[in-house]
Design goal:
- With about 80 residues, this protein is α+β, with helices and mostly antiparallel strands.
- The chain has one domain (about 10-80).
- It has helices spanning about 20-30, 40-55, 60-75, and strands spanning about 10, 15-20, 75-80.
- It has a three-stranded antiparallel sheet with strand order 2-1-3.
- Strand 1 (about 10) and strand 2 (about 15-20) form a beta hairpin.
- Helix 2 packs antiparallel against helix 3 (about 60-75).
- This is DUF982 domain-containing protein.
- Pfam families: DUF982 (PF06169).
- InterPro entries: DUF982 (IPR010385).
- It comes from Microvirga brassicacearum.
């Protein structure tokens, strides 16, 4: 999740936001997703994928895919 282009946009209570780095994706999952979703297995898997990518143990694409799935599942992914 690097480079100048954004990976995707998600809808938050503060409007649309673009995510372009793994650490931003973690921030979204920890602080922007609904509290009721924080224990969701998909959200936990996305957090693990992001942490693995940040530590160099996994590809960034895996984190992106997992984050998109979690964001879609909890209803914050903006696919427009």
């Amino acid at each position: 999740m690097s480079g100048s282009s954004h990976l995707f946009q998600f809808a938050s209570t503060h409007g649309r936001r673009s995510v372009s780095r793994v650490d931003e994706a973690v921030e979204v999952l920890l602080y922007q997703c609904p509290k009721s979703a924080t224990g969701d297995p998909i959200v936990r898997a996305a957090l693990k994928a992001c942490h693995d990518a940040m530590s160099g143990n996994s590809a960034v694409q895996n984190a992106k895919t997992a984050f998109e799935a979690a964001a879609r599942e909890i209803g914050i992914l903006d696919e427009s």
